Amino acid sequence: MKFENFIAKRYVISKNKLNFISIISILSTIGIMIGVAALIVVISVFNGFSSLVTSYLISFVPDLQIKIISKDN
User: Fold this and answer.
1) pTM across the whole model
2) Where does 1-73 show beta strands of DSSP type E?
3) Cβ neighbours of residue 11 under 8 Å, at least 6 residues apart?
4) Domain boundaries, position 27
């Protein structure tokens, strides 16, 4: 068993009859998991939105413009 897993199991699963610390640690772990998942979703949505806006703006302003210069001007 890896050292990290051993420490995690020892911290989460307590041998006491009163599992108050275990409940608090489980709730805080779930809260952190939900927060990280929300941040991942928000970052993904903003990256998609950024590429959408970039493609939309490029359609209006081309990379290269060719203009005719007349001798009259």
Assistant:
1) 0.55
2) none
3) 25
4) 3-45
CA 8 from chain centre, in angstroms, equals: 25
Locate tokens 């952190």: which residue? 32
Q: How many domains does the chain have?
A: 1
Does 15 map to a domain?
yes
Q: Taking the alpha carbons of 22, 25, 28, 33 in that order, is the dihedral positive or negative?
A: negative
pLDDT at 42: 96
Q: Report the C-alpha gap between 49 and 47 in whole angstroms.
A: 5
Q: Residue 69 domain-assigned? A: no
Q: Are 13 and 22 in contact (CB under 8 A)?
A: yes
The residue type found at 11 is Y
Task: State how far the Cα of 49 lies from the Cα of 57, in Å rounded to an integer.
Answer: 12
